[in-house]
Write a structure and sequence with these properties.
The chain has 423 residues and is of the alpha/beta class. 35% of the residues lie in helices and 22% in strands.
């Protein structure tokens, strides 16, 4: 592993390399305990995460809306991303009431507020807020590199030299920070709707009746019977529906050059417009089969699972949003702290990556040293449960509950290397 690995820097002084330390550590760990590496968790490993800002879209009126908003505000932030909070956390796009037909149209994807979200992004200068956060803009408008140094584990002097344009090495580090950090900055916009299932089920049944009007008696009878069966299956309980739009900050060499030209001129920075591009959209719905009275904890569980599922699906669909997670133990068992919360069921394929540095350019690159798959019966249940015991307690080969997902053995894998899911 290169001297600028995700775990530590060893420099060129002739001291023991990070890779040698990993090899020794792995040997000691295997001798001491087959499943634990010094009692560490994935949070002990230093690696570069993508950054995420989560915005709630306030658009519709519905029952228990205040409860849904409160649960959203208490939602445990996805720990596979760095929290990149900006001042804009709620998008107040209206406070409309929807009748049964409106709710049915929303659920069936016939209404969309993306254009309004795009307008808010532009009006609130969300891109500019994200960039200002990255460069730790102070009250007097000045910038610094502290946050980038912290999240990227960069050498402070290299970045200072880059700003002064005095060092080719420093300039490479700055370009690397742009590619590794700013170019992986995301914003999600999520809206909710909570409704009685019977309202939508009834509209769908009535629509089905209308479609077969005028057709012969047998066709009408069969279609109405099918619509009645569907109605009976879906009319009970309530549904929590959500829709999430995922955007990414546009950051490239041209944008970076424009920004650094105004480094010492805050007034000019305030004239810049930083773009966001749409990555994708994900909807999710969870049926709630209980009375509302005294059911706040149950609603909380459903909402949190709903949100977890949305992000897990976005990760599966869009490669750019897939998180990297560090190898916790290796080579056997090969484990990482990713699990059911991220949608794993067993059998998913991951690549094992070693982060290295190009000695000529100083840029970071990830080298695949192998691939692995998730062990089907050893997936960690890390779903949020409000402090209760996990719903499913999965035990390892030693009979103890697992605290990380197990993967097929990869001989070259070492703790601190990264796993990334592939299709």
């Amino acid at each position: 592993m290169a001297d600028t690995s995700a775990f530590a820097k060893s420099g060129k002084s002739g001291k023991t390399s990070v890779k040698s330390l990993f090899l020794m550590a792995a040997l000691v760990a295997n001798l001491m305990c087959a499943t634990v590496l010094w009692g560490q968790s994935a949070n002990d490993f230093k690696y570069r995460r993508s950054s995420l800002s989560m915005v709630l879209v306030d658009f519709y009126k519905f029952d228990v809306k205040d409860t849904i908003v409160q649960i959203w505000n208490e939602y445990p932030f996805p720990d596979k991303y760095d929290k990149h909070d900006i001042s804009f956390k709620i998008a107040p796009l209206g406070n409309e009431s929807l009748d049964a037909k409106g709710i049915a149209a929303l659920v069936m994807g016939k209404t969309d507020i993306q254009a309004k979200i795009d307008s808010v992004i532009e009006a609130e200068h969300i891109g500019r807020q994200l960039v200002a956060k990255w460069f730790n803009r102070s009250g007097d408008g000045k910038f610094d590199m502290e946050l980038i140094q912290q999240r990227g584990y960069y050498n402070a002097s290299e970045l200072d030299a880059a700003i002064a344009q005095q060092s080719a090495r420093g300039s490479a580090a700055l370009a690397d920070a742009g590619e590794e950090l700013l170019n992986n900055t995301f914003v999600s916009f999520t809206q909710f709707m909570f409704f009685n299932n019977e309202l939508v089920a009834k509209i769908i049944r009535e629509t089905a009746y209308e479609v077969v009007k005028g057709q012969n008696g047998l066709v009408q009878l069969a279609a109405k019977k099918a619509a009645d069966v569907l109605y009976d299956k879906t009319k009970d309980g309530k549904t929590l529906f959500s829709k999430t739009w995922l955007y990414k900050l546009v950051w490239n060499e041209e944008v970076a050059a424009t920004f650094y030209n105004v480094w010492n001129n805050p007034a000019e920075f305030d004239k810049l417009d930083f773009k966001l591009e749409l990555v994708g959209v994900q909807t999710n719905s969870s049926i709630v089969l209980f009375a509302l009275d005294g059911a706040i904890e149950a609603i909380k569980k459903v909402e949190v699972r709903n949100i977890d599922h949305v992000y897990a699906e976005l990760q599966k669909k869009y490669d750019v949003f897939k998180p990297k997670v560090p190898v916790l133990t290796a080579p056997e068992p090969l484990t990482a702290q990713i699990g059911m919360k991220e949608g794993l069921e067993g059998g998913e394929k991951f690549e094992v990556l070693e982060m290295t540095e190009d000695p000529e350019t100083g840029r970071t690159k990830y080298v695949r040293i192998g691939t692995t798959t998730v062990e089907k019966k050893l997936v960690w249940d890390n779903r949020y449960n409000g402090g209760d015991a996990p719903e499913s307690e999965i035990k390892g080969k030693d009979g103890n509950p697992i605290t990380a997902t197990h993967f097929k053995k990869v001989g070259k894998a070492q703790p601190g290397m990264l796993l990334k899911q592939i299709k």
